[in-house]
């Protein structure tokens, strides 16, 4: 085994209890300002409803494995608000939304700070993550804020690859710069369809399910289930050939 890849949301970090209260008001203000700029002023309740519907559409697309960008989500919200499509306004609004949450509260999952430095001594580490409003640039910022960024040598974020897991391209984008074949890698993530099925479909040797939130979902069985990343330190030893 030469490389370990990780999912981000739910696996390495999760939103803190105050995350929504920290980011949503700013996002609503951005959308309100954009509708004003377009000459179609909207009320806060209208903006909240439009953004909620756009987010549901994004979640449906994600579950179906159909890529939907943040610009697509903004354009859909604008359509609901009666804002005429303007690619420049859509792009500026998406860019502003992507910057929200820079200082928001995230919680690092158990064992991350202890396990990653040790794992990085023996394996190449990479990140394979789907993104929503916070794109790859913001996720890199979150990793850097926690002192974790230097442990990773490659990244695959859906806003940059324009594919969602379980598409094998999401995983191969992270492995190719490392010079590692899927059969030489282990992936850890919290979602059976996106992470476990995706990694195994790509040809990974091993796929580890983190946590228990999604354990009832159908799909291929993971190599192992863990609840603390320190468990990986012993697990990888058992998976190496004698």
Give a verbal description of the structure.
- By secondary structure, the protein is an alpha/beta fold.
- The chain has two domains: 3-16 and 105-239, Rossmann fold; 19-98.
- The chain has helices at 19-37, 44-64, 70-81, 87-98, 112-120, 136-145, 158-161, 168-175, 192-202, 231-239, and strands at residues 3-6, 13-15, 106-108, 124-129, 154-157, 185-189, 206-210, 224-226.
- The strands form two sheets. A six-stranded parallel beta sheet has the order 5-4-1-6-7-8, with helices on both faces.
- Helix 9 links the parallel strand 6 and strand 7 (206-210).
Question: TL;DR?
Answer:
This is HAD family hydrolase. Helix content is 48%, strand content 14%.
Give the name of the CATH superfamily of the largest domain. HAD superfamily/HAD-like
**Major β-sheet, in short?**
6 strands, parallel
Q: Output the CATH topology of the largest domain.
A: Rossmann fold
Averaged pLDDT: 96
- How far is the first residue's CA from the last residue's CA? 12 Å
What letter string, H or E per element, gives the SSE order? EEHHHHEHEHEHHEHEEH
Number of domains: 2
Q: Cα-atom Rg, whole angstroms?
A: 19 Å
For the largest beta sheet, what order do the strands appear in spatially? 5-4-1-6-7-8
CATH class designation of the largest domain? Alpha Beta
Secondary structure tally, helices? 10
> Which geometry do the CA atoms define?
elongated
Helix content: 40-55%
Strand content: 5-15%
Structural class: alpha/beta
Annotated CATH architecture of the largest domain: 3-Layer(aba) Sandwich
Q: Which spans have pLDDT < 50 for at least 5 consecutive residues? A: none
Tell me the number of strands: 8
Pfam families: Hydrolase
Protein name: HAD family hydrolase
GO molecular function: hydrolase activity
InterPro entries: HAD-like_hydrolase, HAD-like_sf, HAD-SF_hydro_IA, HAD_sf
């Amino acid at each position: 085994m030469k490389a370990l890849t990780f999912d981000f949301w739910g696996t390495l970090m999760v939103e803190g209890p105050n995350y929504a209260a920290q980011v949503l008001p700013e996002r609503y203000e951005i959308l309100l300002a954009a509708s004003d700029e377009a000459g179609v002023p909207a009320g806060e309740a209208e903006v909240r409803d439009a953004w909620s519907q756009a987010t549901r559409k994004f979640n449906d697309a994600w579950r179906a494995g159909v890529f939907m960008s943040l610009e697509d989500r903004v354009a859909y919200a604008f359509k609901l608000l009666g804002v005429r499509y303007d690619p420049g306004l859509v792009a500026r609004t998406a860019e502003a939304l992507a910057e929200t949450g820079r200082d928001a509260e995230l919680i690092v999952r158990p064992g991350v700070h202890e396990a990653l430095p040790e794992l990085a001594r023996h394996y190449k580490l990479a990140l394979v993550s789907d993104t929503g409003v916070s794109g790859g640039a913001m996720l890199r910022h979150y990793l850097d804020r926690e002192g974790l960024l230097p442990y990773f040598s490659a990244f695959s974020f859906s806003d940059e690859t324009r594919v969602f897991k379980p598409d094998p391209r999401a995983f191969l984008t992270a492995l190719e710069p490392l010079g590692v074949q899927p059969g030489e890698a282990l992936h850890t993530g919290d979602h059976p369809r996106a992470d476990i099925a995706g990694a195994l479909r790509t040809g990974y040797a091993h796929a580890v399910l983190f946590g228990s939130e999604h354990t009832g979902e159908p799909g291929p069985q993971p190599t192992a289930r863990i609840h603390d990343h320190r468990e990986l330190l012993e697990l990888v030893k058992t998976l190496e050939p004698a």
